[in-house]
């Protein structure tokens, strides 16, 4: 017997970006909804974030750039659902929108991708590592400092996954760091030399999870999406996103937040770095017994506590 109320079959349109990864994710949601008896079409859209490729996202207004156009499609009724990488979804959605589903998380970790170097310790003198993420930059700087490698340079790298891999293959970088989830979803898992353990490269809030956004006040959509929700993933990302929210809400901060749920225990770690000074990272962690997986408020309270500990350590 289904553990959720069955929803009447609906005719649904999914708004999605048109990168290969975004389309994979939208197709995945489409297949899940079709398996529930709904009929689904995709509406592909180009966002500002896809158009601006020559500047670092944190300089042009953050990751909200990837979701705004999709929200417009929800607003004017061209689409019912927007599928996002949760990592790219701002902490506060604009009024009138809500996060209606978080699906089961893929591998949340970062991956080391390099044709020639097995790892950080293996980089030749003066090597260039590509990433535009402030989080990856400060965590890499920290790991390089521990190795005594002040010669390694970290250079910006933008574009969709295929573009980034092409730039690596053209020799512009010795290595790049990407989310394992995106590579695995696109069948590019063989490009991963190793995944970083969270101790070394603490993942971003929401990394590896898919979020589905809707216009508020559509209970029929919430019912249709209920079977796609993954309570354990949602509890973990709720805690992570609460850290980001408490640290200022922007997605373009040098902030990592990663939660794991083991035997009912929600364990959350966070790290903050200073890009300009390149000083040591501020780290904080805490845990709680989450007796009810649906108690997102408790998970968020844990996130707020960890953010307060980061601030007490000098972050922000
Ligand atoms: N910032 C871009 C982005 N947004 C989501 C993913 C894929 C992984 C995920 O679902 O978190 C990526 C690529 C990357 O960071 O390497």
Automatic annotation (TrEMBL):
Pathway: Porphyrin-containing compound metabolism; protoporphyrin-IX biosynthesis; coproporphyrinogen-III from 5-aminolevulinate: step 2/4. Gene3D superfamilies: Periplasmic binding protein-like II (3.40.190.10), Porphobilinogen deaminase, C-terminal domain (3.30.160.40). Keywords: Porphyrin biosynthesis, Transferase. Binds 1 dipyrromethane group covalently. It catalyses: 4 porphobilinogen + H2O = hydroxymethylbilane + 4 NH4(+). Residues 235-311 form the Porphobilinogen deaminase C-terminal domain. HAMAP family: Porphobil_deam. Tetrapolymerization of the monopyrrole PBG into the hydroxymethylbilane pre-uroporphyrinogen in several discrete steps. The porphobilinogen subunits are added to the dipyrromethane group. Belongs to the HMBS family. This is Porphobilinogen deaminase. The lineage of its organism: Bacteria, Pseudomonadati, Pseudomonadota, Betaproteobacteria, Burkholderiales.
């Amino acid at each position: 017997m289904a553990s959720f109320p069955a929803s009447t079959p609906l005719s649904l349109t999914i708004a999605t970006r048109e990168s290969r990864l975004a389309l994979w994710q939208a197709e995945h949601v489409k297949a899940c909804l079709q398996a529930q008896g709904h009929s689904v079409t995709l509406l592909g859209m180009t966002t500002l974030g896809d158009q601006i490729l020559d500047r670092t996202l944190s300089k042009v207004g953050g990751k909200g750039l990837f979701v705004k156009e999709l929200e417009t499609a929800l607003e004017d009724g061209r689409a019912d659902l927007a599928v996002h990488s949760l990592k790219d979804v701002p902490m506060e959605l604009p009024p009138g929108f809500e996060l209606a589903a978080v699906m089961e998380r893929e591998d949340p970790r970062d991956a080391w991708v390099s044709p020639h170097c097995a790892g950080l310790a293996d980089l030749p003198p003066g090597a260039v590592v590509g990433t535009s993420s402030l989080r990856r930059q400060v965590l890499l700087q920290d790991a390089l400092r521990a190795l005594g490698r002040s010669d390694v340079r970290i250079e910006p790298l933008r574009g969709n996954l295929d573009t980034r891999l092409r730039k690596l293959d053209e020799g512009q970088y010795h290595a790049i760091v990407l989310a394992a989830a995106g590579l695995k979803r696109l069948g590019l898992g063989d490009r991963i030399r190793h995944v970083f353990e969270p101790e070394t490269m603490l993942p971003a809030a929401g990394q590896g999870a898919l979020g589905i956004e809707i216009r508020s006040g559509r209970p029929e959509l919430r019912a249709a999406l209920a079977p796609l929700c993954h309570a354990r993933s949602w509890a973990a990302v709720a805690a992570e996103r609460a850290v980001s929210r408490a640290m200022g809400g922007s997605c373009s901060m040098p902030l990592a937040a990663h939660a794991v749920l083991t035997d009912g225990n929600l364990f959350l770690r966070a790290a903050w770095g200073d890009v300009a000074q390149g000083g040591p990272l501020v780290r904080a962690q805490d845990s709680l017994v989450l007796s009810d997986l649906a108690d997102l408020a408790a998970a968020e309270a844990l996130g707020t506590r960890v953010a307060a500990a980061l601030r007490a350590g000098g972050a922000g």
